[in-house]
Amino acid sequence: MSILAQNKFLLSSRSHVNPCSTPIPRRVFYCIANSTVNVAAGATTTNPKHADGQLLIEREVISPTPLTLVNSSTYYSVLNDPSLRSTWSHRAWVASGCTTVLVSLAKSIVGAASSHIWLEPALAALVGYILADLGSGVYHWGIDNYGNVSTPIFGTQIEAFQGHHKWPWTITKRQFANNMYALARAVTFAVLPVSLAFDDPILHGFVGVCSGCIMFSQQFHAWAHGKKSELPPLVVAMQDAGLLVSRRQHSAHHRPPYNNNYCIVSGIWNKILDETKVFEALEMILFFKLGVRPRSWTEPNSAWTEETEIIEQTTAH
User: Fold this and answer.
1) What stretch of H or E contains 270?
2) Residue ranges with strand state E in 18-162
3) Is 233 helix (H, G, I), strand (E, B) or coil?
4) How far apart are CA 124 and CA 65, in angstroms?
5) Which residues are bridge partners to 17 per DSSP?
6) pLDDT digits (tens, 9 = 90+) for 252-273
7) Region label for 73, one of left (φ > 0), alpha (ψ between -120 and 50) or beta (otherwise)
8) Which of 60, 89, 152, 191 is the most buried (most CB within 10 A)?
9) Structure letter (DSSP) for residue 229
10) Rounded Cα distance, 202 and 190, in Å
């Protein structure tokens, strides 16, 4: 869920299919006339001459998605790309967002100490942490599946999310403030009025933790794409404990059919949302009410095909 636009790098045209990949069953819902058509793997096709309201079931299996390799020259050009670097404006927004969150948390702690109540603010903070993960998943699902670059307000973010599916590894090359500033700016505008207007320690326990987790979700996301050997030991321990979204869990989101594991704070909601098919139900509602198809119903094309970094190393002889 990369908030910032991913550069359209000129990448190598070489491609290969992952030998470990297997055909993936896919379920797609759409309408023909007044009939509902359910395409489900493993089913057989009924008579194509169906009356309105008759269920037509066909077999469809998605082939493994080809991966495009990035050669070393392109890789190093990515590292030097200025759009991945932090600017003083980025740093200022991150400082502003962090200050706003810290003020809210400080007011919660001071208020709890003065009123001698600790359980309620602590529970409110826990709820904020849990709902931040849910919110990140709902937002990620919406941006991944609906709208385009011309969508008002969210167009740039939608384009960036699609770019992230194509070049997911670039998020690990972004500098800290570059990756964080957009959410930090949103948190500043949303949380600062609350910090100034209210003194309730319970409210600030919720707001401070929830907004802090949302703001840092981009960094949690970047860590979920990082190599274990390159991550701080504390981060690895928190991922293994389920406190932060793990690398294994999030990697499933970047494999076909690209319609699961949307949450990127702790990932605790991913299993619940995927097993109960909440997003599939929302997609059906939006389709039948508004006629809008989510991108996850369409077989992945080049815009979703990951282009994988390959570093070609040479050794001196």
Assistant:
1) helix 270-275
2) 24-25, 28-32, 35-39, 56-58, 61-62, 66-70
3) helix
4) 43
5) 66
6) 888 877 889 999 999 999 999 9
7) alpha
8) 191
9) G
10) 18
Q: Which residue has the tokens 């890789």?
A: 75
Structure tokens at 177: 């403030």
Cis before 23? omega within 30: no
Based on C-alpha coordinates, what's the Rg of the chain?
22
Distance CA 22, CA 15 (A): 17
Per the CB < 8 A criterion, the answer to whether 1 and 139 are in contact is: yes
Strand ordering across the sheet containing 307-309: 15-17, 66-70, 307-309
Q: Could you tell me the two tokens for 146?
A: 């609906």
pLDDT tens digits for range 174-220: 889 988 998 999 999 999 999 999 999 999 999 999 999 999 999 99
* Dihedral pair phi/psi, residue 195, rounded to 5°: -65, -35
3-state SS assignment for residue 87: coil
Sign of the C-alpha dihedral computed for residues 204, 221, 142 and 185 taken in this order? positive
DSSP H or E segment with residue 278: helix 278-290
First-last CA distance in the chain: 43
For the stretch 73-106, pLDDT in tens is 555 555 567 778 889 999 999 999 999 999 999 9
DSSP string, 129-182: HHHHHHHHHHHHHHHHHS--TTSTTTHHHHHHHHHHHHSGGGGGTS-HHHHHHH
Structure tokens, 250: 């999030």
CB 134 within 8 A of CB 210: no
Q: Global pTM?
A: 0.72
* SS3 call for 192: helix
Report whether 35 contacts 54 (CB < 8 A): yes
